[in-house]
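Same chain as my last thread, 348 residues:
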Amino acid sequence: MSDRTYSVVICVYTEDRWEDILAAVDSVRQQSLPALETLLVVDNNPVLRERLSREFKTDGEIGAEVRVLANAGPRGLSAGRNTGIAAARGEIVAFLDDDAVAERDWLRYFDEGYDDPRVVAVGGRTLPAWASGRRPAWFPEEFDWVVGCTYRGLPPGRVRVRNVLGGNASFRRTAFDAAGGFATGIGRDGDKRPLGCEETELCIRLGRALPHAVLLIDDRAVIHHKVPKARERFGYFRTRTYAEGLSKALVARSVGSAKGLESERRYTTRVLPAGVARGLRDALLGRPGGAGRAAAIVTGVATAAAGYALANVRTRSGVAFSHGPIAAYAPSAGHTQGPVVSVGESSP
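reply #2:
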C-alpha cells in the first residue's frame, strides 16, 4: 500500500439528505486505504453546516477526521468542489456524491492508478441504487448518466479516458495547480435545472495544460449512487437530457467543438444505434420494456440536440463562466489558472 494521502470532498446542500450524507461519510471511514480527511462542503445552508459541525464536533479545524466547511465561492457544485480542493491537505483529492456510498476498496483501486506518475486523475464505476428497488423497464442503460451513473458504452476494466465523472473521481492536487478548478456556470446549483459537464470541461482543460497527462477509469473503484423515485420518471429523463445539451454547448464554446464533442460522436453514432436495435429486438421477442427503451433513446437524443442548438444560439455573444482558479479560495500560493480545456470517455 502506498504512502499517498487522500482528502475526500463531499459537497452537500440540503438537510433532506441527512441520512445519505452520514452514510457517505461512514463509507469513507470504512475504506481499506484510510483517507487523511473527509471535507464536507456546505453550499449556502448555515443550518445544515451547524448541524454537521455538531455531529462531527468540528468547524473546519485542521487535524479533524471530518471537516465541515462553507462554500467559499458562488452558489453551486463547482464552487463547492473548488472550496474543498483549496482546503484539502492530501496529495490526492477524491470526490464522492452526497447521496452515494463507496465500496470498501474504492480508494485503494484509485491509488493503484497513481503508481504511474503520468496519471493525474482516476475515476471509478457508479452503480444506480433505484429507490423503487429495480431499474424501470423503459430506462436504457446507455442513458444511466442521466442519474449520475456509469452508462453502457464505456469500456470495461482500467482504461484511459478523456474525462472522469465528477461524483466518483480523484485528481492529483498538482492537476489543479496546472489547470485551475471547476468552471462555475456549467454544473449544478442545488435543485435547479440539472446541468452538468463541469468535470468534462475541467479534464479537457487539464489535457491541454498537461499534454502528456493520463486520465483513467478503473471500474473496480465502485460507488452506489441513490436514485430517488422522482428521477425514475420519464419527465426527469427528458429534462435532464435537455439540460445536458445546454451544458455540452457551453463546454464546446469553452474548449472548442472538436474536443468538447469527440467522445459524444462515437456515443451517438455507435452506442446509441446499437441500443435502439437491442430495444426493438427485445420488443419483437416480447420482452418487457424493449420498445420503451428504444423510444427513450430516440427521445434523449432529440432533447439533448434541442438543448444544444438553443444554447448555441444564446451563447454566440460569449460564455459567462469562470474557470475556478483555486487561488481565489485559498491563501496558499502557486495555484494558477491554466488555459481552458477536453480528453477520453465521460458522461455524454
